[in-house]
Amino acid sequence: MDLRKLKTLIDLVSESGISELEVNEGEDRVRIVNAGSAAPAGQVVYANPAPTQVMQTAPLASTPAEIAVETPAVETGFVARSPMVGTFYRAPNPESPNFVNIGDTVKVGQTLCIIEAMKLLNEIESEQAGVIKEILCENGQGVEFDQPLFIIA
After folding, report:
1. Overall pTM surpassing 0.85 (yes/no)
2. Is the separation of the CB atoms in 140 and 88 below 8 Å?
């Protein structure tokens, strides 16, 4: 992969706000991780780089326009955020009903979800009363610290 493509990919990651991009092209593999800095800097990691004289130029599977993610209309209200890194669960176990669903009315201190971190199940409670307008995570999805989980209005 030539340096112009790498520069374009790094710029794309820094401008779009995505946290990570991985591109496989033949035997080349490039992973760019956005560290969250304002400067267009990313981490580029090579695994098994092919010699440049053997490398063929192939078009990337998607163009920057195709990579752009459509953002849904933003609901207004209180945003319940993850207090830790872990795995998001909507119910205490697979057979149980979800703690909350869209449209449910919640009270302060009511359990919204569970985040599993280091084999410990942590109940996340509502900090504000209201109605669940949006659930921003999928069941079993990994979440980061301070990541929005619910919108409560």
Report:
1. no
2. yes
Beta strands per DSSP E along the chain: 20-25, 28-34, 42-46, 78-81, 86-89, 105-106, 111-117, 120-125, 130-135, 142-143, 148-152
Residue ranges, CATH 2.40.50.100, the chain = 78-152
Q: Which CATH architecture has domain 78-152?
A: Beta Barrel (2.40)
How would you write the pLDDT of the chain (153 residues) with one tens digit per residue? 677 777 887 887 777 777 777 888 777 787 777 766 444 445 555 555 555 454 454 555 554 544 444 445 555 789 999 999 999 999 999 999 999 999 999 999 999 999 999 989 999 999 999 999 999 999 999 999 999 999 999
Rg (CA), the chain: 20
Please say whether the beta carbons of 151 and 137 come within 8 A. Answer: no
- What is the maximal distance between C-alpha atoms in the chain? 64
Pairing relationship of beta strands 105-106 and 142-143 according to DSSP bridges: unpaired
